[in-house]
Design goal:
Blueprint: H1 10-16, E1 28-29, E2 36-37, E3 48-49, E4 52-53, H2 57-61
Antiparallel strand pairs: 1-2, 3-4
Length: 62
């Protein structure tokens, strides 16, 4: 099994890890109510998707 001959320095290790950062999720505005939501998902505020009511929020609350 291969074993490293020398210790990997912190600078070399951190250079390799530079792309391990988290990304902010993409956000879109709802066409019906104007609230921010994730794209290609039903709006959690009004229940509309692509101009059509998919979830009746009055029934969902009860």
């Amino acid at each position: 099994m291969a074993v490293p001959k020398r210790k990997t320095s912190t600078a070399r290790r951190d250079k390799r890890r530079t792309h391990w950062k988290m990304e902010v999720p993409a956000m879109a505005t709802c066409e019906h109510c104007g609230a921010t939501k994730r794209p290609h998902r039903v709006c959690p505020v009004c229940g509309y998707y692509n101009g059509v009511e998919v979830v009746n929020m009055k029934d969902a609350e009860a």
